Amino acid sequence: MAATLAALPTLRLRARLLYDGAAYQGVQYQPNAPTVAGVLQRALSTRMRHDVKVVPAGRTDTGVHARGQAVHFDVDAERFAADGVDQLQHAVNCLMPDDVRVAEIEAAPEVDEDGRAWHAIYWSTGKLYTYRFYTGRVMDPTQRAFRHHVRPAGRGAARFDLDEARLAAQLLVGEHDFASFANTRANEPGFLDTVRTVRSIAIHDEGDGFARAEVHVKGALYKQVRNMMGLLFEVGRGARGAPEVSDLLARRSRVLLPKPAPAHGLTLEQVFYRTGWGGRYDHPLHTDMVGSGSILRSDVAD
């Protein structure tokens, strides 16, 4: 059994986390369910010989993937010094299944103006999600685990209209009340605040029916990105018109929206910061200052 960390001199570390989310009920630790954070915590606790709590920047949902999730955790400073970054990373990855990997571990010594330590959630300035999809009739089976097949509306239906989907997407950009685009968890009967900012949505044609949406947000409500994509797919298929988006936002109700797009097409590509990792994850779309206030539970999930 791992020892507790309370009496040890500690060091805060930050890292990037990559995972195939298919086998997990999200990233956030749950005591009775397989989660990405749970896998990482067990590996870290085994290696460090004390309990380690992992704090992810965002609570990706069941089946959602990540290439650029950010996390922080506290470790025994002396034990870490004995290992070093490369040895710790190698050892932890050897202790985890092949569908989860940790990378870019480094010390996080910074504090804000109130003396609070660097924090994966509160120091984040924004996130980039991608959603990969295919609009042709027969999709390559090797793509099925990470790309959603948006099937034609019917025999003889018009080809998926990427331009119409792009037009609808622009109506979602900016600060809006996204209550219509948020699901409610069983343990979250309502939202205190459903206003969020979508900073950019770009839909890229990858050729031969393959496409990718890139969505920059500060933070997202539960299933917000998947709900937005579900509506954009309806618009592209011709089942909805782009002008309906503004009305659906104003209604603040999920009733008239389609089901959220499936989780397997969604990937958290990056979490952005102005501090850490040598500035490699700073981004001109995301320039928020650290310490601008608390983030609601629902503001760190999709």
Which terms summarize this structure?
302 residues; alpha+beta; Alpha-Beta Plaits; 2 domains; 6 helices; 26% strand
Walk me through what this model shows.
With 302 residues, this protein is α+β, with helices and mostly antiparallel strands. The chain is built from six helices and ten strands. The protein folds into two domains: 10-122, Alpha-Beta Plaits, CATH 3.30.70.580; 126-268, Pseudouridine synthase I, catalytic domain, C-terminal subdomain (Alpha-Beta Plaits). The chain starts with 9 loop residues before the first strand and ends in a 29-residue tail after the last strand. The model is unreliable at 291-300 (pLDDT under 50).
What is the secondary structure topology, with strand pairs?
Blueprint: E1 10-19, H1 36-48, E2 55-56, E3 65-76, H2 77-83, H3 85-95, E4 100-107, E5 124-134, E6 148-149, H4 162-170, E7 174-177, E8 195-207, E9 210-217, H5 224-237, H6 244-251, E10 266-273
Parallel strand pairs: 3-10, 5-6
Antiparallel strand pairs: 1-3, 1-4, 2-3, 5-9, 5-10, 7-8, 8-9
